[in-house]
Amino acid sequence: MSSSDASLSASFDWSSQTAAARRRKRHAADRRLQLCGIAAITVALGLLAVLLISLISNGYRAFVQTMVTIPVYVNPDHVNADDPARGNYRAIVAQSLQALFPDVTDPAEQRLLGQILTNNSQFFVRDRVVADPSLIGRTFELTTPAADPFDQLEKGVIRRDLPESQRRVSDLQIGWFDKLKAEGRISTPFNWGLFLNADSRFPELAGLSGAIVGSFYALLVCFLISFPVGIAAAVYLEEFAPKNRWTDLVEVNINNLAAVPSIVFGLLGLAVFLGFFGLPRSAPLVGGMVLSLMTLPTMIIVTRASLKAVPPSIREAALGLGASRHQVITDHVLPLALPGILTGTIIGLAQALGETAPLLLIGMNAFITAPPGGLLDASTALPTQIFIWADSPERGFVDRTSAAILVLLGFLVLMNGIAIFLRQRLERTW
Amino acid sequence: MAGYAFILILFMSLLAFYIGRSAGNRFHVAAGRDTHSLPGYHGAFVAVWVGIPVLVLVLLWLGLQRPVIDQLLIASLPDAMTAGADRAQLSLYISEIRNVASGRIFAEPTEAIRIAANSLVRWEALARWAMLVVAMAVMLVALIIARSRLTPRFRARNAVERVLSGLMIFCSLVAILTTLGIIVSLLYEAWQFFRLVPVTEFLFGLRWEPQIAIRADQVAGQGAFGAVPVFTGTLLIATIAMLVATPIGIFTAIYLVEYANERTRKMVKPVMEILAGVPTVVYGFFAVLVVAPAVRQTGSLVGLEISPNSALTAGAVMGIMIIPFISSLSDDALKAVPRAMRDGSLALGATRGETVTKVLLPAALPGIMGGILLALSRAIGETMIVVMAAGLIASLTFNPLDSVTTVTVQIVTLLIGDTEFDSPKTLAAFALGLVLFAVTLCLNVIALRIVQKYREQYE
Question: Model's pTM, two decimal places?
Answer without folding.
Answer: 0.88
